[in-house]
Amino acid sequence: xxxxxxxxxxxxxxxxxxxxxxxxxxxxxxxxxxxxxxxxxxxxxxxxxxxxxxxxxxxxxxxxxxxxxxxxxxxxxxxxxxxxxxxxxxxxxxxxxxxxxxxxxxxxxxxxxxxxxxxxxxxxxxxxxxxxxxxxxxxxxxxxxxxxxxxxxxxxxxxxxxxxxxxxxxxxxxxxxxx
Length: 179
Description:
By secondary structure, the protein is an alpha+beta fold. The chain is about 30% helix and about 30% strand.
């Protein structure tokens, strides 16, 4: 789901340089991003979340029109390869990373880090003083390498299932605490 380091693959394997970047197109991208989301949750999060937790989490993409509406708010950026999305992230509102998912097979190529950097730049342009997120146990290290610090560990309910997550924050502007 989340990646961190750009690593070279075997000859002929697509690399970071082969990735195209674009914004979300409502009505057009929802189904393909729902597929990336479900695959990331069900396959990549298995090391941190059990099957009932992953099933509850992945249901948030079941209603495609609601998922489309959720992706259409704020700014959703997509990394694609050969016209197919391989990662996406959302900034909503201007100071919160709402979503960050990388397709299995595309992890550890720098996509998540690049998406975080792009969203951070947008937050800075909007003059946000901080950038925060509610990250999964899998995503937490990626955000921490990007300069985020843990504020709190939380539990969120999806139906009858409880999922752990981490509220993380990164200051974007220097703050003076002297009078």
